[in-house]
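ingest -> validate -> predict -> emit
validate: passed (alphabet ok, no gaps, 111 aa)
predict: started
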Amino acid sequence: MNHGYYVYTDYQCIDAYKLPENGDWSSCPHCNLVPKVWRFDNGLHTACGCGNSKYDHFSVQAESIMSLHKRTSGKRMDKYNSDQLRMNWNEYCSTMINPCSHGDLNLEGKW
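emit:
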């Protein structure tokens, strides 16, 4: 089990998740899959083989571009890091600690 999720050798996510097109993504230390990612205006999420279903799965996240825009009234868009999701995923793979979950984002007023 990984953070309370079953571990499979196939992806546990909906079809909106896609394999990353670039960057050096580590494999999940539990299922050995490189994550699929879902990037949209109000979210950045990963999915791998760790999950109870395609709707209930382990995920590392990063602040979305719209969250930063809303939080800073559009005045700090230069602070957006489009590579943050990959960095958070790779940190999780090396430490086994999820650096950014949905709960973490909410506590910081981000999404």
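The CA atoms of residues 21 and 41 lie 18 Å apart.
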